[in-house]
Design a protein that fits this description.
By secondary structure, the protein is an alpha+beta fold. It is built from twelve helices and twelve strands. The longest helix is centred in the first third of the chain and has 17 residues. The N terminus and C terminus are likely disordered.
């Protein structure tokens, strides 16, 4: 049996990156307060862009490491730019606690550093990279997950979890589920990592939801990394943590945690080598996709065993939140009415019949597995062709992150579903459905068509 590595969680000390001595203790306090608010209240308005202002200010001031009057003009310039950015968000962020904390914090810093409200403002600049932008070869062995295993020990088993579309979940156990899960839900919660998603209606009043916000917390770990928080939301996919940094902080193994921007605003990858984990986040259309590769011992390192059922990647969605889309598909296949059409601004929206949705999904997903079936389901419920790409990229990311190529494709199970089954079986004929089930299905389809 594979031995478990000894790991001690370091709780002492702050895991938050400050803005340098020149910024003063109050600046550090503002960063901590804003970061805490962003984690506690994840369901703020998608139009509020206070996160962007916060990240730009931290990125601009992160190189200020010397106190004294010679640094004051530079800091005041950055502070005025921060204030200007926050003022631009006033209309959309007025009910956001992080916004009000920023407003009061800026006033306090202006007073402490004798900064004038009038004067030049700086342009945001990325935080300068440290000389060891790659992993340091002399970082502790405990910060290199695979190196910590003895040569004669079997290599670790890696697992995969993904969330995409309307939304569809592939668990670490390779169960495939379509879920409602509206609002905020934890995907991962273990000793080293916490991931939460927020799913919002595709249209006001719509039954279809998709992921509009993602929060990832990397907990501080020994001499490897400080605590780091990453947040993404619709039209905001940053290539940095909320403190403006791109790595794990100032500890000796900090570069075993880093963010790599693959395509600006569309695709980032977070490499957490100290726990053998890779995370891929994309924005496709207006919504986010999530995929992770993680060793089994990290997956199972849960601290609160009583609440493991809320950890979606491990246990799946609660039974009450699951959707059996085989019945939806069966009804759609019999109907000649196009679904999913509507006006959604700049988003490409079409009205799809079952046949046209199948043709569209075949363009990207030729194998009729559950990724293909998810694509068809999403086109019928939303009419948004971007969901075709979401299913395609979810499959492509899975192929890179999953360790067993024999499990790339998951197909529908034959026979009837039991309460423990997740992957749907073959469509049942309407006569086999109970009267209550059949009536509920008709109401669900009718309501969805009215809102889309």
């Amino acid at each position: 049996m594979q031995p478990q590595r000894e790991r001690r969680e370091v709780r002492s000390g702050s895991g938050w990156m400050g803005m340098g001595k020149g910024a003063g203790p109050s600046a550090l306090g503002i960063g901590q307060i804003l970061s805490v608010f962003l984690c506690i209240f994840p369901a703020v308005s998608l139009q509020c862009k206070i996160l962007k202002c916060n990240s730009e200010f931290w990125a601009t001031t992160s190189g200020t490491h010397h106190s004294g009057p010679e640094r004051a003009p530079e800091f005041c310039t950055a502070l005025r730019a921060y204030a200007h950015c926050v003022r631009r968000t006033a209309r959309t962020c007025r009910g956001d606690l992080a916004y009000h904390s920023a407003v009061h914090g800026i006033e306090d810093l202006m007073s402490q550093h004798n900064c004038s409200k009038e004067g030049p403002t700086s342009q945001p600049r990325p935080r300068t990279s440290t000389p060891d932008s790659q992993e340091r070869s002399d970082s502790p062995e405990i910060c290199h997950y695979e190196r910590s295993f003895h040569k004669h020990t079997a290599p670790p088993n890696y697992t995969h979890c993904g969330l995409f579309g309307d939304p569809h979940l592939r668990t670490f156990g390779d169960d495939f589920q379509t879920c409602k899960v509206r609002g905020s839900w934890p995907l991962i919660d273990n000793k080293y990592l916490y991931v939460q998603v927020t799913n919002s209606p595709v249209l006001p009043g719509s039954l279809a939801t998709a992921t509009s916000k993602l929060t990832i917390i990397f907990k501080n770990f020994q001499e490897c990394v400080d605590q780091k928080v990453y947040q993404a939301e619709t039209d905001e996919l940053p290539a940095a943590f909320v403190d403006g940094s791109r790595n794990g902080g100032d500890r000796h193994g900090a570069n075993t945690l880093r963010i790599v921007e693959k395509m600006p605003g569309q695709h980032i990858e977070i490499q957490a080598r100290y726990i053998g984990t890779t995370i891929v986040v994309r924005q496709v259309g207006r919504y986010l996709t999530f995929a992770v590769r993680m060793p089994e011992d990290v997956v199972n390192s849960t601290e609160d065993t009583e609440n493991q059922g809320l950890y979606l990647c491990l246990r799946g969605c609660p039974q009450s939140e699951r959707i059996d889309f085989r019945t939806f598909r069966a009804r759609a296949a019999e109907s000649h009415v196009a679904a999913g059409g509507g006006n959604r601004g700049s988003v490409s929206v079409e009205a799809f019949t079952y046949k046209s949705a199948v043709v569209k999904c075949k363009e990207r997903l030729p194998v009729e597995d559950l990724y293909f079936q998810s694509c068809v389901f999403d086109l019928l419920t939303t009419g948004d062709v971007n969901f075709t790409l979401a299913a395609y990229y979810a499959f492509e990311d899975m192929k890179i992150l999953h360790s067993n190529k024999d499990k790339f494709h998951i197909f529908e199970r034959t026979g009837d579903l039991t309460p423990g089954n997740s992957a749907p079986g073959r469509p049942s004929s309407p006569s086999s459905l109970s009267a209550l089930h059949f009536l509920a299905l008709l109401l669900w389809i009718q309501c969805g068509l009215m809102h889309l």
